[in-house]
Amino acid sequence: MGGAGQGRAADVTAAISAKVLERFPAGSPRGSWPAEEYAARCRAEGEPATVVMDLESDAFLVVVPSGD
Question: For the chain, where are the alpha helices, taking DSSP H only?
């Protein structure tokens, strides 16, 4: 009846070349966003920092493009 893949979640993998500036454990207290705050300070200094989640280590990473 339906087309291929309908109703199923797709696994998506992306290869991104980035430099990790800092790691923050995911267990911060509610309302505390240390990774986002650190990334905001980096952006204020001109670094194109972003926050990503590393599911394997259960940590938030602040990263910048590696410039490769």
Answer: 34-44
3-state helix, strand, coil in the chain (%, to 5): 15, 30, 55
In the three-class reduction of DSSP (H, G, I as helix; E, B as strand; rest coil), residue 43 is classed as: helix
pTM: 0.73
Phi, psi for 52 (deg, rounded to 5): -130, 155
Q: What type of residue is 60?
A: F
Average pLDDT over residues 37-45: 97
Kindly state the percentage of the chain with pLDDT values over 90. Answer: 60
Strand partners, 51: 62
Residues in the chain: 68
Give 3-20 pLDDT, tens digit per residue: 554 555 556 555 668 899
Structure token pair of residue 64: 């910048």
